[in-house]
């Protein structure tokens, strides 16, 4: 766990905290029981701290503000790592750590956690780096990696990849689901921007640079307890919540700002709470069936294969036409 008084003083203005909604170390520490609870572990060391975490977790989970009714199964312990971190991996981790923290010691700690996660996952995406950084605030390395592996193997399978085809597929599945619910919004948005351009901060980055930390944890709770279906419920809620504003604009930059909840389009912090709560409440109310997701994934994957084949065929045709060109000095 990185959280200390010194850490807060050095990093509170770093990029990780740009949307945190946290104004003090005390506020940040108050979030830790909820993050610890994501592991689904029962405290068993007999310590006062463990008892208090367990007590506070149960107390908060009984409150309507934190719907934890489905409960989290305990996240699996780590198996033997299967993948080797290369010098190129280390270079990328270092660059991402520099983008995340300002202090070299904290960057090194993040790099270590990224290396440990890679040794179990075998791939990496920058959005994953922010998730690891967020979890590292509250958890030790082993528990950070346990959660990353759990997310990688189940609700977010294939997202933590340098070439996340699973993410691209699922962003297009989201648009198929939107088409069924609001054809007008789907057609307008599809004519302006591809979904993979705006879904990554939700699907891969788990809203860390979109929502305040307290709502980020709510998102993580829902993903872990409800699985991949919630990811699509949230995506639909985000789009439908902003439906009127999207339909009223042809400005791609403005629409992308809406879908990132950029500060440029948000009201004051207190008024923004109604937006965050509105999206999360709508996500809780939208049901997406796993069978529907499975079928749409098959359909979209087939479309992606056809599109790839068409691109490859077009490239061959262009190469063939280039070969037929005779330059004057060749005559």
Describe, in plain words, how this protein is organized in 3D.
By secondary structure, the protein is mainly α. It has 2 domains: 5-153, no CATH class; 165-291, Ypt/Rab-GAP domain of gyp1p, domain 3 (Cyclin A, domain 1), CATH 1.10.472. It is 64% helix and 0% strand. The protein contains 17 helices and no strands. Helix 5 crosses helix 6. The longest helix has 34 residues, at 290-323. It is globular, with a radius of gyration of 22 Å. The relative contact order is 0.09. Residues 44-48 and 53-70 have low confidence and may be disordered.
End-to-end C-alpha gap: 71 Å
Q: DSSP helix count? A: 17
Q: What is the helical fraction, as a range of percent?
A: 55-70%
Low-confidence stretches: 44-48, 53-70
H/E series: HHHHHHHHHHHHHHHHH
Report the radius of gyration as a whole number of Å: 22 Å
Principal-axis shape: globular
- Beta-strand residue percentage: under 5%
Average pLDDT reading:
88
According to DSSP, the number of beta strands is 0
Largest sheet: none
Domain module count: 2
Q: Specify the structural class.
A: mainly alpha
Organism: Babesia bovis
InterPro entries: Rab-GAP-TBC_dom, Rab-GAP_TBC_sf, Rab_GAP_TBC_domain
Protein name: Rab-GAP TBC domain-containing protein
Region (Disordered): 312-331
């Amino acid at each position: 766990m990185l959280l200390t008084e010194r850490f807060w003083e050095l990093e509170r203005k770093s990029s990780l905290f740009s949307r945190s909604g946290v104004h003090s170390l005390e506020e940040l520490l108050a979030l830790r029981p909820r993050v610890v609870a994501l592991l689904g572990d029962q405290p068993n060391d007999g310590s006062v701290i463990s008892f208090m975490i367990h007590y506070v977790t149960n107390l908060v989970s009984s409150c309507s503000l934190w719907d934890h009714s489905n409960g989290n199964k305990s996240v699996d312990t780590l198996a033997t790592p299967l993948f080797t971190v290369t010098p190129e991996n280390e270079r990328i981790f270092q660059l991402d750590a520099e983008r995340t923290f300002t202090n070299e010691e904290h960057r090194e700690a993040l790099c270590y956690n990224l290396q440990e996660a890679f040794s179990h996952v075998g791939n990496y995406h920058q959005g994953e780096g922010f998730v690891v950084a967020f979890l590292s605030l509250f958890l030790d390395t082993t528990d950070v990696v346990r959660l990353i592996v759990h997310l990688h193997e189940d609700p977010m399978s294939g997202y933590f990849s340098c070439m996340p085809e699973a993410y691209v597929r699922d962003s297009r599945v989201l648009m198929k689901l939107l088409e069924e619910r609001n054809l007008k919004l789907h057609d307008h948005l599809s004519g302006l921007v591809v979904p993979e351009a705006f879904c990554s901060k939700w699907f891969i980055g788990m809203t860390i640079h979109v929502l305040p930390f307290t709502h980020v944890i709510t998102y993580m709770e829902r993903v872990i307890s409800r699985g991949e279906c919630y990811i699509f419920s949230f995506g639909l809620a985000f789009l439908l919540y902003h439906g009127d504003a999207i339909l009223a604009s042809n400005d791609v930059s403005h629409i992308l700002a809406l879908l990132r909840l950029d500060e440029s389009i948000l009201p004051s912090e207190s008024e923004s709470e109604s937006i965050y709560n509105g999206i999360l409440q709508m996500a809780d109310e939208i049901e997406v069936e796993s069978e529907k997701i499975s079928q749409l994934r098959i359909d979209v994957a087939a479309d992606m294969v056809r599109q790839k084949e068409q691109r490859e065929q077009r490239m061959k045709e262009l190469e063939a036409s280039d070969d037929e060109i005779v330059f004057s000095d060749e005559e």
